[in-house]
Amino acid sequence: MYVHVLDWPDDVLAIPDLPTRVTNARMLDTGAPIRFRQSEEGVTLFLPGVGDDGIDRVAVLEVGR
User: What is the spatial distance between Cα 55 and Cα 9, in angstroms, rounded to a whole number?
Assistant: First the structure.
């Protein structure tokens, strides 16, 4: 699953109510790992590289059942 992060100045991003379990997360461009926490409410991503000038940062979420 790809998450496009547009104009998000914070290092924490909450994604509500995902229908599947996230098993791994990384940045697409650098491969840098993304720390995450999943609960019944959704997934919280702790994004690396806040303050980058990238217009569209892409997080790759590997999902399982």
Answer: 11
Specify the residue for token string 């999943």.
Answer: 38
DSSP string, 6-51: ES--SSEEEEE--SSEEEEEEETTT--B-EEEEETTEEEEE-S-TT
What pTM value is reported for the model? 0.85
pLDDT digits 0-9 by tens, 7-54: 888 889 999 988 889 999 999 989 999 999 999 899 999 998 765 566
Separation between Cα atoms, residue 65 and residue 56, nearest integer Å: 28
Q: Give the whole-angstrom CA distance, residue 16 versus residue 44.
A: 8
Would you kindly state where each structural domain of the chain is located, as residue ranges?
2-64
Strands 56-64 and 42-46: what pairing? unpaired
